[in-house]
């Protein structure tokens, strides 16, 4: 037996022995970590890398930004990181202040305080789309892809009660009817439904909490640092991998305030989605959603938003409004009211306990509901 063959055989036996000892079979994922621009300094990032390698047996960390890399700024580190990803020297990377292209946003991962449950927040940085509702629809798809990459076969989806939530719910229901397979979560509140409240955030009711990116970013900061006063992110997995159509890199985001525990978990998060083949799953989920009419729904939403009314709607004679009609999104509430005015039905808008409502006279309620349903404002 030649020396090279002996070395290879010895290497295989060593890998098997290590796998039996650690329970980790297969090659480790190599995750890059840039070392610049943290508010806590380079040592905190190095500490995170060491913590990740000690805690998790399925990854090794490549530090980018040391003297050997000749990095004078984060942009230089990003260039090295991008090159290593393109050359397949890295399976994924973790960094901060990375400029994703339009259409790409990150799916964050938190540990909720109510029961210590993990929950994905879709999304937390980047820009999925310039319009809120289409963006949140795509955020749902991205969240589902990320959840499946983590091994959650049938993730549940909840929609945070922000502007656009009801429209997102309505259009997701259409996707579901048209064949896109996913499961809605049910709120813990007495009235249930897939639109989530603050209680659901704290309890981690859904596997995936869908929201707009700015709200998601704020939530990440609150979940990660509510015990530390906000200057040190101590809990969670960071802001997550950038996900988008035709996006071909696995880059996870942390912030300047992220501490070693969060960064170590972010490295683990990226190793997991690399192992779970997030890039391919994103393509698969988008293909299924498009087959169910995603692009048509987005086109309809954009056309509706850009439509300009040519005639002014005349306000009917005022009546006492003693009944409420709920389930209409805040972005459509004025249009719903004016659609009733066009039918000579007096209506006002208001805010109920669970969101915006149409206020209507008791005598007009049945007819108003019928008209709103016919116009597509309520189910």
TrEMBL record:
GO terms for biological process: fatty acid biosynthetic process. Gene3D superfamilies: Isopropylmalate Dehydrogenase (3.40.718.10). The active site is at 353. GO terms for molecular function: acyltransferase activity, transferring groups other than amino-acyl groups. InterPro entries: FA_synthesis, Gly_reductase_pC_asu. Pfam families: FA_synthesis. This is Fatty acid synthesis plsX protein.
